[in-house]
Amino acid sequence: MSAAHHPTGWRRWVYSTNHKDIGTMYIVLSMIGAIIGGGMSWYIRLELAQPGIQFIDDTQLYNVMVTAHGFLMVFFVVMPAMIGGFGNWFVPLMIGAPDMSFPRMNNISFWLLAAALVLLVLAGVTGGGPGTGWTVYPPLSSATYHPGPAVDLAILSLHVAGASSILGAINLITTIVNMRAPGMTMHRAPLFVWAILVTAFLLLLAIPVLAGALTMLLTDRNFGTTFFVPEGGGDPILWQHLFWFFGHPEVYIIIIPAFGIISQIIATFSKKPVFGYLGMAYAMCAIGFVGFVVWAHHMYTVGLDVNTRAYFVLATMVIAVPTGIKIFSWLATMWGGSIELKTPMLFATGFIALFVAGGVTGVVLSNAGMDVALHDTYYVVAHFHYVLSIAAVFAMYAGFYYWIGKMSGRQYSETLGKIHFWASFVGVNLLFFPQHFLGAAGMPRRIPDYPDAYAGWNMVSSVGALITAIGTFFFLYIVWHTLTRGRAAEANPWGVGATTLEWTVPSPAPFHTHEDLPKIEAAQGVE
Amino acid sequence: MFTHFRSVATLIALACATVASDSSAAGLATPWQVDLQPAASPVAEQIQSFNAILFTMEALITLGVLGLMGFIIWRFNAKRNPVPNKRTHNTALEVLWTVVPILILVVIAFPSLRLLFFMDRTFDADMTIKVVGHQWYWSYEYPDHGDFTFDSVMIPDDELKPGQPRLLAVDNPVVVPVGVNVRVLLTSDDVIHSWAVPSLGLKTDTVPGRTNETWVRVNEEGTYYGMCSELCGVNHGYMPVAVKAVSKAEFDVWSKNAKQEFADNGASTTRVVQAPREVSPREVSQ
Fold first, then answer.
1. A139: cis peptide before it, omega within 30°?
2. Interface mutation target, options A339, A351, A383, chain B, most CBs of B under 10 Å
3. Nearest-CA neighbor of B267 among B209, B204, B189, B161?
4. Domains along the sequence of chain B with CATH
5. What angle do CA A46, A49, A50 make, to 5 degrees?
6. Contact with chain A for residue B233, Cβ under 8 A
7. Contact indicator for A358, B95 with CB cutoff of 8 Å
8. What is the pLDDT of residues B85-123, one digit of tens each?
9. CA Rg value for chain A
10. Is B5 on the interface with A (CB under 8 A)?
11. pLDDT at B26 over 90
12. Exposure string (b/e) for A327-344, b if CB count within 10 Å is 16 or more?
């Protein structure tokens, strides 16, 4: 093969148009983001371990870390790992396509995201940083209360990250719609492909609304418009509507790819096809659709009309139904299976446990009346970390252990993987479960110090953070151990349960795959 | 780095001592508390009873699903069940696990909406107070009692008197009589804040350019604490809410005195919006 087809050195990466190399770069970027964003959260937990101020004297710095932690984890850790990383790597492999539809656009998507990460770091170290929370509510984020370029840089960072996501979404949609191998009908496509397709549509519809809102905030800050300024006829609540119209689909953008990964893994390690395949696929579509009409449940205390709140209560509750279908279908897939609790399966069952716990607190919070007691407290922090952070991260770990043999050609150590699982599972539950108690007892979010009564559970939570941190560094060791010491992976290390097309190509997957299109007779979907 | 940690036991002892020395422990959290603060208003009572329904359901669902998963992992382990079956459909089952959650949600929805409409506002208010959020303190106005206004600022750690809870005590708590319906109107002078008192079931954002409304009827005398519940800048963690509920007679005396004491304070709504200054948390309550 000529050098032009397989460039080497830095050209291989910087100029890459190969879905596997770009996917790898996304995963590396996600790990960099996770180290920065995770480091911030551990510093926050260190400060919160006991009452009083011990480490972070500058409360603006505290707010900046709370803000940057949120931005990093959402835009630069979970999204790149799930969509850019696993999506890029495995959508073409699973549908029998040689690569993505638009390989050069794929390259631009990645490098825009890398640029956005640089802008976000710049925002954090410029002129006091953005201490607005990831929700960037005006007037706090306006030029009056956040003068200096920090918030402008953060806005720019989100703009660029958004452009990256939109291009990525277009690429994924086009690939999935047009490049499925002969015989790979949509109803035969693996659920991970369905998950990425639904996610890509959510991105395509939600990100432009964020972009519009960000532009309005930018012109409010710099060019004298008053979209969100009451003195000029604007309204700060307008921002919240626009932000959450994006922000709520965003949380499904984070979790739906996780659903896809978990579905593949549960089926593989139960040695059974997914139970209720069509129900699973259309449940994700339903979650995606309903996700667009529930945004104001983030705004129950802002002064919305009571009838409006009543609508959002009922609409939000509806989401529990398709979500329940997914949970029950996973259990039914396992029922009657021949379950092997290898590390990916351990993380997948851990995902279900965490997601159920986070899901039922979501139903609690959907009630506007109950939310008055819990809104903006640590209960909300516990809820969304259960579903979005630790459940999503468990899905990422599960995906990593599931696919690392295919990606690197080397298999992880089962013993080390299991130690990592148990350290993480104990750590994250110790970290986040007590936060339900803190929130119920009334401790607000985003405060650097707290009344002394909250000391006990905060200390427990910080101990959990320490264990989680140790688990995370252990994971980095496992990555190193796998890449340098791991045994060679077979094409299919999982046996009869692994039925999707990525297991038909050698490990590591060659630079180009499916150059002769596979013909699909019956896939794991509908026979 | 970890030499900074005192032992957990010391902390707990410290926290216990703080609360024990406070005569009115009802209106704030207690160490190792795992549930809502005790209810001190009709709205908070209804939140409590609704929470009891929700908690029962969430505990049953969580334990049920996790128990089922544990059973499946045990029963259908590869060792115990080497040959998997291939069943992937069961229409009756799929309808069942769609319909049952819907029924559960319907059961939740009725008390949920009843609570929502009950807490929204009061139609026969006995009096009105107005709350204005500022970076980083609250001010209160009493339009029905001579239209006086005063600021309510956190007492810094080094000026606390014995019995005053840290980060919660303020110089001038907002005073209301027990047993009367108080309409609360809320707005902000600068950024968005949120006026919250957990034990009274109160949490409403103060938004510049808008006037929000809520209501409260305090059941018993005492002081009820809360904290600002919307990120509002560098001293967000240092603007507590303290509601002091007194008897009607005591309130009448207080309001007469307050009218004179705070006579020189103009109504805060006429105040010019000030540009934010850089204030460290230490000097927040000058």
1. yes
2. A339
3. B189
4. 2-120 (1.10.287.90), 127-261 (2.60.40.420)
5. 130
6. yes
7. no
8. 988 999 999 999 999 999 999 999 999 999 999 999 888
9. 23
10. yes
11. no
12. bbbbbbbbbbbbbbebbb
User: Counting beta carbons within 10 angstroms of the beta carbon of residue B234, is it exposed (0 to 12), middle (13 to 18) or buried (19 or more)?
Assistant: buried
Q: Does A143 touch chain B (CB under 8 A)?
A: no
**Residues within 8 A of A (CB atoms), B 112-151 only:** 112-113, 115-121, 135
């960037």: which residue's tokens? A136
CA B43 to CA B37: how far, in whole Å?
Answer: 13
Least confident of A148-162, A452-466, B17-31: B17-31
Nearest CB to B229; choose among A66, A335, A375: A375
Q: Which residues contact B68 (CB under 8 A, 6 or more apart)?
A: A331
pLDDT digits (tens, 9 = 90+) for A276-332: 999 999 999 999 999 999 999 999 999 999 999 999 999 999 999 999 999 999 999
Q: Specify the pLDDT at position B14.
A: 43
**Phi, then psi, of A441 in degrees rounded to 5:** -75, -5
Q: How far apart are CA A180 and CA A123, in angstroms?
A: 41
pLDDT of B2 strictly over 80: no
* Residue B283 sits at the chain A interface (C-beta within 8 Å): no
For B137, the token pair is 């303190």
Q: What's the pLDDT tens digit per position in B179-215?
A: 999 999 999 999 999 999 999 999 999 999 999 999 9
**Interface check B269 vs A, CB under 8 A:** no
Identity of the amino acid at A472: T
Q: Across the interface, do B50 and A360 touch by the CB < 8 Å criterion?
A: no
Strand B193-197 relative to strand B202-206, pairing: antiparallel
> Which H, E and C letters describe chain B, residue by residue?
CHHHCCCHHHHHHHHHHHHHCCCCCCECCCCCCCCCCCCCCHHHHHHHHHHHHHHHHHHHHHHHHHHHHHHHHHHCECCCCCCCCCCCCCHHHHHHHHHHHHHHHHHHHHHHHHHHHHHHCCCCCCEEEEEEEECCEEEEEEHHHCCEEEEECECCHHHCCCCCCCCCCECCCEEEECCCCEEEEEEECCCCEEEEEHHHCEEEEECCCCCEEEEECCCCCEEEEEECCCCCCCCHHHCEEEEEEECHHHHHHHHHHHHHHCCCCCCHHHCCCCCCCCCCHHHCCC
Query: Nearest by CB to B31, which of A272, A301, A453?
Result: A453
Residue B283 has pLDDT above 70, yes or no: no
- The pLDDT of residue A1 is 46
Give the separation between CA B200 and CA A442, rounded to whole angstroms: 11
Q: Which of A62, A194, A252, A378 is catalytic?
A: A252
Interface contact flag, A325 B97, Cβ < 8 Å = yes
Catalytic residue among A20, A297, A410, A514: A297
Residue ranges of A 74-113 with Cβ closer than 8 A to chain B: none
Residue of A nearest to B168 (CA): A451
Asked whether the whole model's pTM tops 0.80, one would answer yes
Specify the pLDDT at position B266: 59
Which residue's entry shows tokens 């060659």?
A510
Exposed, middle or buried, A223 (CB in 10 Å: 0-12/13-18/19+)? exposed
CA distance A259 to chain B (A): 17
For residue range A186-236, what is the model confidence (pLDDT) as tens digits? 999 999 999 999 999 999 999 999 999 999 999 999 999 999 999 999 999
B274 interface with A at CB cutoff 8 Å? no
Q: Is B68 on the interface with A (CB under 8 A)?
A: yes
A248 is catalytic: yes
Which of B29, B87, B207 lies at the smallest CB-CB distance from A336?
A: B87
